[in-house]
Write a structure and sequence with these properties.
Layout lengths: L5 E7 L6 H4 L3 H15 L8 E8 L2 E4 L2 H5 L6 E5 L1 E12 L4 E21 L2 E20 L5 E12 L2 E15 L4 E11 L7 E13 L1
Parallel strand pairs: 1-7
Antiparallel strand pairs: 2-5, 2-11, 3-5, 3-11, 4-6, 5-6, 6-7, 7-8, 8-9, 9-10, 10-11
Length: about 210
């Protein structure tokens, strides 16, 4: 007698987030964005221009796979915690140490591949988790060289939304009056299942339109 072992393949790109905690309605997300734009409208007359910055962030994601994805780590056959992402920032430039703005970004957080035995069946499940983020920013730069960014906002997964914050100290390399190269270190915890936290190095280009 021969027993044929069948296999089922499931592919997904989302986390197993608890929708009752983080699955915000679209109306709330839209309201959050309107609120951020409302905050940026304060004291706009004191600003001296708009600074646009594009940066890349290679790094590492610390995450509890079992809590994030809902599977025992004993079934994990492959995983990758290398992270990378990109962000586009817009800041209201001013002749003051503090400036404020918004950031939109994309991040690849982590990868995991499971082979789960189910009697005569095996389920193959692959998770390649990425997010889109929207953040409100505040930057403190007392010497125009060293700076510290803090951000708060949301990360949008395939099946839900999670709040997030980050801190990013760094240094500005001046190329000209308006063109600069920011280099930084970024720590970004996302308050979803498994609490993924990215640790990344950042580098990019920044230009101030006056």
């Amino acid at each position: 007698m021969f027993i044929v072992k069948k296999s089922l393949t499931f592919h997904t790109k989302s986390t197993n987030m608890k929708t009752e905690a983080f699955n915000f309605k679209r109306e709330r997300v839209a309201g959050f964005l309107i609120f951020l734009l409302f905050l940026l409208s304060f004291n706009i007359h004191a600003q001296k221009g708009i600074e646009i910055s594009l940066s890349g962030y290679p790094g590492y994601t610390l995450v509890n796979f079992e809590e994030a994805l809902g599977y025992n780590d004993d079934y994990m056959s492959d995983w990758d915690q290398f992270s990378y992402g990109f962000s586009l920032k817009g800041l209201l430039a001013a002749n003051k140490p503090f400036s404020y703005g918004l950031e939109a970004g994309w991040q690849r957080l982590y990868y995991a591949y499971y082979i789960v035995p189910m009697g005569y069946y095996s389920a193959y499940r692959e998770f390649n988790v990425s997010t889109i983020s929207i953040m409100a920013l505040a930057r403190y730069s007392p010497a125009k060289k060293f700076f510290a960014l803090v951000g708060a906002g949301i990360h949008i997964f395939d099946d839900g939304v999670a709040p997030a914050v980050y801190i990013e100290p760094g240094y500005m390399i001046s190329i000209g009056e308006n063109l600069k190269i920011p280099v930084s270190i970024r720590i970004n915890p996302v308050f979803g299942d498994g609490l993924p936290i990215t640790f990344a190095l950042g580098a990019g280009v920044s230009y101030t339109f006056r």
